[in-house]
Amino acid sequence: MVLDTATAQRQVLDAADALFYERGVQAVGMDAIRSASGVSLKRLYQLFPSKETLVEAYLDRRDALWKSMLAEHVEAATDPRSRLLAVFDFLYEWFQQRDYRGCAFINSFGELGTVSPRVAELALEHKEGFRRALGELAAAAGARDPEQLADHLILLSEGAITRSAISGTADPAVRAREAATMILDASLAS
Amino acid sequence: MVLDTATAQRQVLDAADALFYERGVQAVGMDAIRSASGVSLKRLYQLFPSKETLVEAYLDRRDALWKSMLAEHVEAATDPRSRLLAVFDFLYEWFQQRDYRGCAFINSFGELGTVSPRVAELALEHKEGFRRALGELAAAAGARDPEQLADHLILLSEGAITRSAISGTADPAVRAREAATMILDASLAS
DNA sequence: AAGCGCTGAGAACGATCGTTCTCTGCTGGC
DNA sequence: GCCAGCAGAGAACGATCGTTCTCAGCGCTT
């Protein structure tokens, strides 16, 4: 079976994503990715010269996918206020996925943050991107201090992400939405 | 050099705590713990028959230490309202520690949650203990719905914990305290 | 038809993992 | 003085890791 570069790359990334996310980076060997992807070890190393490269690609794709899923939910809402709260509806849907295991960036950072500066950097960038999005939504919603509101809302989001992972319930998203509503109302321009 | 059981156990746990917390569980071999603790491999395995046992002991001790540090901060405050907010002052101090690397339970859960039910259980218990403490503080502070307030405050706390780890700043504790104040004021019995 | 280059399958390599075993030397009881 | 038993130091074991190498086979050019 011969594969063109694009599909081979996609199959490897699909396998890496599923395995890294479920079991963690260090617990998954390159052999497991090779078996799951059906791409030979040789080709795998041609596409991604090292495991670290593959981890970076895994995180990059997660970041892009996550951003687009978030944007999808936000754009479905019309008025600025519900666009901001749509963030928490997105979280709720995410948490309900059967294989939900928390945030790949938080998990990877916990595993490799000390030893791999690249992973630490990607985690920071991912979270900063999210914070930026919240800042824009907060500004559009007419917050008195959009930056501060974004800081508060991201804490609720991150808290819900880890709590949902550990408890195995999607409920934290509901609680986060409640708290977000309170904070949002309190920080709207009067 | 001969060590009695108690000091040998303490030295092993000190070394395991420092290494597991800094580098993650999987990245630390038993040999590294042996070198750092100065306890022979044989004795190490007499005290902790497997690495998983040692990981459990590491998490148990972290839980106890964390709880007592939190209690210390809370008890230093007098009125119920500042006792509740003292949680976030505690977080601020914690985040400022030079070797702060996030929550050991969140990190361990991310690394081993899927594969080790015991680690998943300990993480859940640790977080439930924290939530319970928040619930009591919320009730004492006269919240209309203490359980809901505790749910909101724990989201802010967990969010601050992970954000502080990734960003390397203690600032999230300040932001969390701000948001907590707003939520607290909004949910006091009127 | 013949040879070159790339392929996939998987063996092989050196390192390191968690765990156990060996060996040497010391200590206490008789 | 002597022997049983436990200590520590670290070698050894089998497994697995990330990575590289071997090798037989296929498709392409001339």
UniProtKB/TrEMBL annotation, chains A, B:
Occurrences of domain HTH tetR-type (ranges): 6-66
PROSITE patterns in the cross-refs: HTH_TETR_2
Keywords: DNA-binding, Transcription, Transcription regulation
Known DNA-binding region: 29-48
Annotated InterPro entries: Homeodomain-like_sf, HTH_TetR, Tet_transcr_reg_TetR-rel_C_sf, TetR_C
Protein name (database record): TetR/AcrR family transcriptional regulator
Organism (species): Kribbella karoonensis
